[in-house]
Specification:
mainly alpha, 84% helix
Length: 159
């Protein structure tokens, strides 16, 4: 497990569980540390995906963020290794924003499901579908990211 994974997945997952336990009626706390570690990592991964798929595009759309051209990013990253470190820090900030938004969404979900008197089965189905969509879209985004890197490096290499 890399430092990036610890900071971008495990830490936000643990924080989410602590905040959810404090601010909502949901408790994700696990007595078994191994199961807890995996669950908190997964929760953090979901939070990270929310940041990548929803928070970042929204902030770009309202022009709060302005990214460099991807090919320029690859080229500059090959020349200046600090750009990679800065990009990782940038992603960590995005994940913390997504964590804070996710806690708010969990509270809204709690109120919404109580208001509609949703059964546990209905809640589980909705969560399952949402997670499936998040990871399908993440898979597509990651595939496109890999293809873009290959294409940027291929052009830089002269092929």
């Amino acid at each position: 497990m890399t430092t990036y994974n610890l900071l971008n997945y495990l830490l936000p997952g643990i924080l989410f569980v602590i905040f959810a336990n404090h601010f909502t009626s949901y408790s994700f706390l696990q007595e078994n540390l191994i199961i807890g570690g995996f669950l908190y990592y997964f929760i953090g991964m979901v939070i990270s995906r929310i940041g990548s798929l929803f928070i970042e595009p929204f902030l770009k759309k309202i022009r709060f963020l302005n990214f460099a051209n991807y090919k320029d990013f690859i080229y500059a990253g090959n020349k200046d290794e600090k750009i990679g470190v800065l990009s990782e820090q940038n992603n960590q900030y995005r994940t913390i924003v997504a964590f804070l938004v996710s806690i708010g969404l969990l509270k809204v979900w709690e109120l919404f499901s109580d208001y509609l008197n949703l059964s546990q089965f209905a809640e589980a189905v909705i969560i399952y579908v949402v997670l499936l969509i998040i990871f399908l879209v993440s898979y597509r985004k990651q595939t496109n990211y890999i293809r873009s890197r290959v294409e940027a490096n291929k052009k830089e290499g002269g092929s």
